[in-house]
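Reminder: ligand-aware prediction takes two inputs, not one.
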Amino acid sequence: MSAGSQRRLRATTLIGAIVVVSLLHYLTPTSHFVLHPLLQRAYYIPILLMAWWFGWRGGLLAAGIAGILYIPHIVMAWGANEEYSIAQYVEIGMFFVIATLIGVLADAERRQKQKIQETAAKLSETYAQLQASVEQVRRADRLSALGELSAGLAHEIRNPLGGLDGAVQILKRPELPAETRQEFAEMAGKEVERLKSLLTNFLDFARPQTPRKSFLEPELLLQSVASLVSETARMAHTEIRVEFNGTGQIAVDAEQIRQVLLNLALNAVQAMPDGGEIVLRSRQEGGSVILEVVDQGVGIAPENLERIFDPFFTTRAAGTGLGLSIAFQIVQGNGGKITVSNNSDRGATFAVIFPLVSGEPESVPVRKATA
Ligand SMILES: Nc1ncnc2c1ncn2[C@@H]1O[C@H](COP(=O)(O)OP(=O)(O)OP(=O)(O)O)[C@@H](O)[C@H]1O
Ligand SMILES: [Mg+2]
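Here is what comes back for the chain with adenosine-5'-triphosphate:
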């Protein structure tokens, strides 16, 4: 039912009720001393409701109709009893007073309600606008991150290209001794290698794989990383030690986390030009499993601690600066966290933290890492 027809129905019913009460007045013999005062009070119900639903105008209209219908009855039935008649007229006066009072109150309440509704509507509109601008800022942020990334990539490509160009120019000279030719050809080869690893790393970074999680013991991962870097470490006069402290299991993509730990271990070897020891260790703390790579290298300058996970940040001439940003992304994609801190004596510690999982999760296929 529409609001308009509901109002019409209400008004007709209430005025009908006033007419019915009036008819009952006329039809009830005056000898009924109890019924008459009751019927008279019965007028209040439709008058009150009219005032409440239609404001003071509706209330006065109802009071007016009740008065007009009721006055002839007073004159006809109670004309002889002056005292009772006066009381009846006063009662009619009360109809008007009550109708006005309730009507004014109802109007005020309606205005208040409307104001609240308007405020709510304005608020939700403002909220929608705010959300739209937050979305806009986010998009701008993503675009600027993309711009920065592309600028970084262009810069990183330009350096090896410059080296390559220089080497090729020299190689073009016909009189070049064979030894020098060999040297520059090797230099060109190195630059090509650098470009290749830059692009491979960049693709890893730009197109992260969705993790295929399995349930595994982190110790197996540490062990396999230790064997993978053992040869590189040996050549750099670095020892690798694996320390297990009985952690529980974690649910991660074994291949991806192996790559992360491998990156961290290689960084550690590169940070220790004078050799030393690298410890790969696991421990459990609260509900988390922590995998750490501890080195005795040069450590990280405090001003760089914030930047080492940024793409292209590197202090190594041959580095792409993508290793740690890829590690960061992978760990995050696997539901973990990666942190770094300098050790109190020397070197740095990288920690990869995952939630400990208990019981066999049904949704995760069991696929243990091979060491
Ligand atoms: N264990 C570490 N000790 C000291 N500094 C480190 C360590 N690991 C990383 N860093 C610093 O963080 C920088 C960024 O590391 P990241 O692995 O992202 O790039 P990279 O090692 O320079 O290059 P790539 O990984 O492509 O070989 C490094 O250049 C180095 O300055
Ligand atoms: Mg690295």
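Helices lie at 3-27, 35-42, 44-78, 82-171, 178-206, 218-235, 254-270, 323-333. Residues 1-207 form one domain. We will return to this case in the review session.
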